[in-house]
Amino acid sequence: MAKSVSTSVTSIYPWNYALQFWHSRQQPARPVIGMSWYNQPVSASQLREYLTSCGLDVVEAFRSAEWSGYFENQLPPLFPLVMSFPLHTQLLLSHHASQLAMWLRIVSCQVRVYQALSPLHNFDFSIHYYSSDSEFPWVRILGYQLEQLVWECELAFSTSNKEVYPKEAVEQKQQVLCPVTQTIPSSFNVGRWYLHAAQAKQFSQLVRDFHPAHLSNVMAKCLGYQRATVNAVWLLSAALSYLPLPRYPLQILGHFPSPAYVDSVVELKANQGPHGHDFRIVSAATPRLALGQLMALP
Which top-level group of life is the source organism from (predicted)? Predict the structure, then answer.
C-alpha cells in the first residue's frame, strides 16, 4: 500500500520534536513548524532539466573509476534538494514563519550523502523550520529511500544583502573558511562560466523558487541588490559539476557571503586535499561569492 502524501504545515510541540533525527548538532533546537512529503518518485524530466541547467553530464560508469562524477545509475548529491525545494518554500511562506521569511536568501548549505542515491527508488522527505533571536533562521531536510536515511541538508538564511556569515560558519572559520580564502595559484582555476539571466530563471522555475530577487531586476533593486540574483543552489550545483566526487559517505559545505548576480562571469578555484576539495567561487565584482568544501566523511 502506498504511503499517503502530506504537505500540510503543522506546528511542532515540545513533546514530539524529540522524535526527529539529529546527526550533526550536539544541542538540537526545537523546530517551529514542520511537514512531510512521502513516496515521491524521481522525475526523469526534472533530472534532465537539472543536469542541463547545471552543466552536468551523465556518464557511463567505468569499471575502475573511484572518482568520476555522476553516473547514469546515481543521482547528483544536490538533486534531492531540488526535489524538496518547494517544501521549504511553502514553510517559509506559511503564517507560522516570520513575515520576513519571503525575503530570505540562502547563506549556508550543508549536505550529507550517506550512500549513492538511486533514481529508481522514491523519496520520503521530512522538513522543519527553525528560528530564534540568536541565530539565522534555518531549515533541516531529511531524505529517505526504502525507509533508510540516505541524505540530509541544512540551509541557513539571512535577510541581509551585504556580506554575511552564519554563526556556524564563523565558528568553523579556522577549519573551513581560512584555507579556502587564502591565495590560490592560477593553476587551480578549474572552472569559469556565465550566469545567464534566462538560465537563472529556468532553474528558479525548475525548483519552484519564487524569491523576488531571483525573478526581477526591479524587485531585486527594491530589496537593496544591484540587480537580479541567482539561486545559491544553482551556483553550488554548477560548481560541483567541475569537481570529482569523493567516496561515500560525503559532505558538501557551502557558505555564500555575498549574492551572485545574473549576467556576470564567475570563476571556480579549488585546492585538492586528501579527502576532497576546498573551493571558492569569485567574480570580478565580488571576490567572495561562495566558499566551501566537498569531502569524504570519515
Answer: Bacteria
State how far the Cα of 217 lies from the Cα of 228, in Å rounded to an integer.
Answer: 5
Q: What is the dihedral of CA 177, 183, 188, 189, to 10 degrees?
A: 90
Q: Measure the CA dihedral 255/259/262/265, to 10°.
A: -60
Single-letter residue type at 279: F
In eight-state DSSP terms, residue 101 is G
What pLDDT is stored for residue 36 in this prediction? 87
Burial of 130 (C-beta count, 10 Å sphere; 0-12/13-18/19+): buried
The radius of gyration of the chain's CA atoms, rounded to the nearest angstrom, is 18
Alpha carbon 260 to chain centroid distance? 15
pLDDT, one tens digit per residue, over 14-72 is 333 344 444 444 445 666 778 888 899 999 899 889 988 887 655 544 333 444 445 56
Question: How far apart, in whole angstroms, are the C-alpha atoms of residue 298 and residue 291?
Answer: 21
Residue 254's alpha-carbon distances to 109, 241, 243, 288, in angstroms, are 5, 14, 14, 12
Q: How far apart are CA 73 and CA 58, in angstroms?
A: 9
**pLDDT per residue over 132-177, tens digit each?**
655 677 889 999 999 999 999 999 888 777 766 655 544 444 343 3
- In this prediction the pTM is 0.80
List, in sequence order, every residue forming a beta bridge with 111; answer none if it has no partner. Answer: 153, 252
Cβ–Cβ < 8 Å for 89, 206: no
